[in-house]
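Input record (one chain):
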Amino acid sequence: MTRIDEYRSDLGRLDRTAWPDYLDRHSNLPGPRGNIELALALADLADLELDDELIASGDEFRTFCGVLGLGSTATKPAVLARLRELATDQRWRVREAVAMALQRCGDVNLPALEMIVLDWACDPHPLVQRAAAAAICEPRLLVGPAAAAVAIEVCRRTTHALAALPVDRRRDPDVRTLRQGLGYCWSVAVAADPAQGLPAFWALDDSDADVAWIVRENLKKTRLTRLL
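The corresponding structure, as predicted from the sequence alone:
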């Protein structure tokens, strides 16, 4: 039995009204790593009403759990719009929950996720772009050339969007967050299909300082260096 199974079993023995307090006791916060296994267990059991309640609480871990739970209904327009808004949250754990929620959507409906991330990659907000790249650049989702092609295209679009920003915007925290994400996402996309990915990666304009940084960071990743 995995830790997720154990938490799912524990939650199943409790009344639903006791779940939020259980999350508080087992969140592992404050600390460097929240209890992701517990959040995943809850996401398997929660309904939209509970997700809304957890998000509305304002508590960071409860919100993380609620956002993650939205992944099961992410194809509904209202839920997807909400996830898009939450992708710009200033709390990094909430932003991670958005990417993970989209990945959970992709686990059961990969074509839907592909459509979402290609759309989000064209959003003007850097944090929405970052969510798109982080969501699709997950090895378990890149199961064939078609999925890898979407990941590569999302990386390409978001990198070009970053490079098109004026210099005075490059130090904005949201833009730096996008750059940081692209510092590893490219390596995941390329490793999924080197035949498609490497030409796209080498075609990046590294005369731009931020794009050059993205290239250097990805070249440090073992998954990419072992292909060269």
